[in-house]
Amino acid sequence: MPSEVRAQTAYIGLGSNLEQPVEQIKAARLAIAALDGVQELAFSSLYRSPPMGPQDQPDYVNAVMAIATTLTPEKLLACLQAIENSQGRVRKGLRWGGRTLDLDILLYGERQIRLPHLIVPHVGIAERAFVLYPLFEIAPELTVPGLGRLAELVDNCPRDGLERIA
Q1: What is the pTM of this model?
Q2: What is the 3-state secondary structure (H, E, C) of 17-81?
């Protein structure tokens, strides 16, 4: 399988709620932009959101980054997981537990991908304010493959405590 493809626009969701979340997000942004085959196109504001899962954890800091990439979706995922690991991500099996860093491929061009380890558009994208609002900030005209116009998805998604961080 080739490791490179024609440049695609991809959107990456970034989230953290442990060990200085704002600094974790900033470091991840730099690490993603430094990857071979990746060019940063846009980066949203930072947003604070309540945790999705157990409520006995700190709020999350979230953002969305747009990139142009020649990496395949699988190679991009591997690179993002390596960045998570380098920033102290521990996978304990607790769903929606606290984490130093969570990097998700939200969209990859117009593709719909269904693999055991990668689903694009990202599962739950249409219901998650902490993804939709930052994504809308940097790509308001976007259409989410299989789900429709981003503007309509945002209109149908309550903010659920999401706040932009000054």
Answers
A1: 0.92
A2: CCCCHHHHHHHHHHHHHCCCCEEEEEECCCEEECCCCCCCCCCEEEEEEEEEEEECHHHHHHHHH
Cα dihedral 105, 108, 112, 114, rounded to 10, equals -40
CATH topology for 4-164 is: Alpha-Beta Plaits (3.30.70)
Cα distance between residue 78 and residue 60, in whole Å: 23
Assess contact for 98 and 129: CB atoms under 8 A.
no
Active site residues: 89, 99, 102, 104
- The tens digit of pLDDT for each residue in 33-44 reads 999 999 999 999
Tokens 């020649």 locate to: 70
Parallel, antiparallel, or unpaired for β 38-43 and 60-71?
Answer: antiparallel
- Spell out the domain ranges in the chain: 4-164
